[in-house]
Amino acid sequence: CSLRVSLLTNMLSWYFCVCINPYQVQYGKYCGGSLVSPSWVLKAAHCGVKDNYISAGSTYSSRGTRYNVCAHFVPPGWEAPNKAHVMDFDYQLLLLETPVPVTNRSRPIAIGSEEDVQPGAMVQVTGWGHTSPENGYKQEILRRVLVPIMSDDQCRLAKHKFYKTITPQMFCAGYEHGSKDACQGDSGGPVVSPRGRLVGSVSFGIGCAAPRQPGVYADVAPARAWIRSVTGLPL
Ligand code: 4AZ
């Protein structure tokens, strides 16, 4: 019976997953990213520039199609993580050699604006990262979690000094009691507002899903002008 249940849930998750998050891509072994146009991917700056391809078009980590990266663009404010663990401007743009075809499985997401980033708004975070701090295995099937955006003031009260360094290029999201969060391997992945706009990119956090230790995300809305200037997209 449990086999049947798991077969059924696998089939259901397959059915639902095929079309969810067509904008999600994978970068390297441990990072995600988002298609913001057929030729441009937004990912985390801290994921580096080592890998020269992304995979897109599947919710299965091992089944995406590879697209070569021809250039990386890093915002002027980004500095590699320092001792204070500040990851300001933790986003980066990748230009693909050939555009990803626009289909049900791969398609860009529109970039959100400041109105999409309100405290209390439930945002969807997706990735192939760890499902608990103890489970160090990458997931094969894309997972998602819904978490509320926190005000910066509330985030500064969190239980670690790193949260005091929240900048306008970041926002926090999560519950006071924890339990739902992004984790290792989700970095660079999409954070999507209730109206389906890209508002963030997974950046960092102290541990995963612990009480008063929310996830920290790069805020994409303030990056619109920079994204427009690099990509020429009509934002
Ligand atoms: C990471 O290392 C990471 N709980 C991503 C998100 C969070 C922690 C770590 C947030 O990719």
TrEMBL record:
Q: Name one GO biological process term.
A: digestion
Instruction: Cite the Peptidase S1 domain residue spans from the record.
Output: 1-232
Q: Which reaction does it catalyse?
A: Preferential cleavage: Arg-|-Xaa, Lys-|-Xaa
UniProt KW keywords? Digestion, Disulfide bond, Hydrolase, Protease, Serine protease, Zymogen
Q: What class of enzyme is it?
A: hydrolase
What does the record give as EC number?
A: 3.4.21.4
Q: Name one GO molecular function term.
A: serine-type endopeptidase activity
Q: Which family does it belong to?
A: Belongs to the peptidase S1 family. CLIP subfamily.
What is the name of this protein?
trypsin
The species is Plutella xylostella (Diamondback moth)
Please specify the portion of the entire protein covered by the chain, as first and last position out of its full length.
68 to 302 of 302
